[in-house]
Amino acid sequence: MIEIKSFGSSSAGNCYYITDGSTPLLLEAGIKFKEIQRKLNFQTSNIAGCLITHEHGDHCKAIKDVLKAGIDCYMSSGTAGAIKVNHHRIKQIKTKEQFQIGTWTILPFDVQHDVSEPFGYLLVNQAGEKLLFAIDTYYIKYRFQGITHIMVECNYSMKILNENIASGRTPKLMKKRLMRSHMSLDNFKEFLKANDLKNVQEIWMLHLSDSNSNADLFKQEIMELTGKMVIIP
Question: What is the pLDDT of residues 36-47, one digit of tens each?
């Protein structure tokens, strides 16, 4: 059974802990490693690996300390080049080439963000549960069968963004970048509609904007759309 914990899910830092009961992993390392240690009661020696999606600091700022702790970090070659950290525990992986960490089989896939070579990940455990993780992407072009756990960014609402621009709260220039780098509520809904949700147990809506989102509204709309349990960390 998959267990998920969120240690940070915002532009201040992103980090998630998942385990299938056998192999614990970190998804992202965008908060201080001391904070990760505290959240896990300093029991970090059994973490089998850390998956990094891209080079922005709110996703990888703790990478040097994670590596120093003896945890292998997996990422695209583009991300590894952009991070500019040389370490034998950095494992470069390729899109659509699956690999194994303990009891997880992991398939990286390309996503859409304004960085070198960003990845999302599909993780499958030995019980056949499937966890989809994608963050900092405005669109997911792939379709997935039999997902049980969805962890996908839902950064902003176009309606709230437009209202904030009209009131001067959000700079107009921000809109273009958001539309080409982060997922809107509308795109999140389209992604859900395009995929097979019959086995889904939980939908995690990640990385909500501080000013251009509404957690209560987002949760309500996605629960009504899917009939599934929705979690906003």
Answer: 999 999 999 999
Percent of the chain predicted with pLDDT > 70: 100
The class level of CATH for 3-231 reads alpha beta
For the entire predicted model, the pTM comes to 0.95
Q: How many whole angstroms separate alpha carbon 136 and alpha carbon 183?
A: 7
Show the CA angle centred on residue 164, arms to residues 158 and 167, nearest 5°. 140
Going by their DSSP bridges, the two strands 3-10 and 13-19 should be labelled as antiparallel
pLDDT recorded at residue 150? 98
Mind listing the pLDDT tens digit for each residue in 76-120? 999 999 998 999 999 999 999 999 999 999 999 999 887 789 999
Q: Where are the domains of the chain?
A: 3-231
The residue assigned the tokens 């992407």 is 137
Alpha-carbon gap, residue 50 to 60, rounded angstroms = 10
Q: For residue 169, what is the enclosing H or E element? A: none
d(Cα 51, Cα 46) in Å, to the nearest integer? 15
CA distance linking residue 213 with residue 24, whole number of Å: 31
Residue 6 backbone phi and psi in degrees, to 5: -105, 125
Q: What is the C-alpha separation between 147 and 125, in angstroms, rounded?
A: 12
Nearest-Å Rg of the Cα atoms of the chain is 17
Name the residue type at position 114.
Answer: D
